[in-house]
Amino acid sequence: MYFKKLQTTELMKTNKMRLLIGAAAVAALNWAACLQAQSALPGSMPGQDYTLAANNKVYLSFDMGTAFQQDINLYDSIGDNEKVTFDTGARLDCELGFNITPNWAVELETGLIDNQVKNSAILGTDFMNVDLMEIPIMANVIYTRPLGRNFSVYLGGGLGGAFSQYYTDLGGETQSDTTFAFQGLAGLKYTFAGRWDLGVTYKFLGTTKHDVGPGIDSMGNPTEYKSDGTITHSVLLALTCRF
Q1: In the chain, is it the N or the C terminus that has fewer CB atoms within a 10 Å radius of its CB?
Q2: Structural domain boundaries in the chain
């Protein structure tokens, strides 16, 4: 498999962390803005029920947790084929949403999913570490159902795209690829301090087939590699602030 060389070693080392740092900065700014908004705008005291809390229509969410990538098939134009397996990885997301009603919301989501490849002769995991990085960009619709005063459950789905790329600890990367993506999600959250939610979310993200890039087949000839679409299951801790 061909891996393009990164321009600098430092760029390679930071490739995995760019969006993590950016999303963490957004979350920190969101926290400060929410605290300021909460003191400046009239709101309920702790113990406010979900229906009243949802009147704060714009919200920003930040969630992170584990990502479980299902096995995929990697193949080329002459029929070489192998099953690629992955270690448990991490997912980090940020969502900007709008509550249309107390029960329905729409949101834009982006984030980062990273899983190390466990076993792939084509990708060269016998002599270097290889990771799969995915960046989903989704438009979601969310339905929320209150469960008493402070708890609520929610279901949702989304459509969009996912950027994907393999990269190595030796400074190489495959060509980037963007495919159609779809997801479903469900979760439980607890409302506190009027404008804040803390919850647990499950997300299922799927993509269509990927163009992995050029390589050398088993006969020593140039070829193009493709793979199945990815399927990722994630369990995430979520923090939300409404404005």
Answers
A1: C
A2: 4-242
Bridge pairing between strands 72-76 and 104-119: unpaired
Residue among 120, 95, 113 at smallest CA distance from 241: 95
Yes or no: say if 98 and 126 are a contact pair by the CB < 8 Å rule: no
**Predicted TM-score (pTM) of this structure:** 0.80
**Residue 28 CB neighbour total at 10 angstroms:** 11
Given a cut of 50, the residues of the chain with pLDDT beneath it are 6-14, 19, 32, 35, 37-49, 52
Contact 27, 92 (CB under 8 A): no
CB atoms < 10 A from the CB of 192, how many?
Answer: 14
Q: Do 25 and 31 contact (CB within 8 A), yes or no? A: no
Decide: 161 and 179 in contact? Cβ < 8 Å: yes
Is the distance from CB of 149 to CB of 122 less than 8 angstroms? Answer: no
Task: Round to whole Å and give the CA distance between 54 and 170.
Answer: 48
Listed in sequence order, the residues at least 6 apart from 38 whose beta carbon sits closer than 8 Å to its beta carbon are 193, 194, 195
Closest CA to 177 of 162, 194, 158: 162
Segment holding 225, helix H or strand E: strand 222-227
Quick one: fold of 4-242? Porin (2.40.160)
> How much helix, strand and coil, in percent to the nearest 5, is found in the chain?
15, 60, 30
Cα separation, 162 vs 74, in Å, equals 18
